[in-house]
Amino acid sequence: MAFKEKQKSAFIAKAESRLNGMQLIDTNHSAVINYGIETQPLTVKEYAEKIQIAEGKRVEYNRILKTADELSNAYEALEAEINDMSRKILAGALSKFGADSDEYEQVGGTRTSDRKKPVRKTKVTA
Predict the structure, then answer these.
(1) What is the DSSP string of the chain?
(2) β partners of residue 37
(3) Are 11 and 58 in contact (CB under 8 A)?
(4) What is the pLDDT of residues 91-121, one digit of tens each?
(5) Which among 99, 107, 110, 4 is positioned nearest to 61, based on CA atoms?
(6) CA 105, CA 102: separation in Å to the nearest integer?
(7) What is the pLDDT of residue 3?
(8) Are 107 and 98 within 8 A, CB to CB?
């Protein structure tokens, strides 16, 4: 099963567009414009850093998903091998000890004598 990778969000695409506009304004004014306040500056530098951090997290997230995919595939393959081995063990016990043996029951089979006998119901006509 493949996990769904994160694509670049609409928020990040919009932020990159806004960043380009901010850079153009800074170039036109020959100065760095602070869109925030003195204690919390919001300039091209801070905005670009946050966008870059978000993009790095997205790339890391997608890398981890690929690793999880590999582990999931390996686990499913092992499950299939174990299931096949279990089926062969049950068949081997059946052939070596018989369908009504204690050994067959010990490896997970249902003894023939333990099976529920089918009961036929008679049809009642009114």
Answers:
(1) -PPPPPPPPHHHHHHHHHHHHHHHHHHHHTS----SBTTB---HHHHHHHHHHHHHHHHHHHHHHHHHHHHHHHHHHHHHHHHHHHHHHHHHHHHHH-TT-HHHHHTT---GGGSPPP-PPPPPP-
(2) 40
(3) no
(4) 999 999 999 999 999 999 989 888 888 888 8
(5) 4
(6) 5
(7) 75
(8) no
How far apart are alpha carbons 104 and 110 in whole angstroms? 7
Q: Which residues contact 44 (CB under 8 A, 6 or more apart)?
A: 19, 22, 23, 26, 32, 33
Residue pointed to by tokens 């694509």: 7
Q: What is the pTM of this model?
A: 0.64
Q: Residue 9's CB: how many other CB atoms inside 10 A?
A: 11
Residues in the chain, how many? 126
9-11-12-14 Cα dihedral, nearest 10 degrees: 120
Radius of gyration of the chain measured on its C-alpha atoms = 33
Quick one: what percent of the chain has pLDDT higher than 90? 77
Among residues 63, 44, 47, 62, the alpha carbon closest in space to that of 12 is found at: 47
Q: Which amino acid is at 84?
A: D
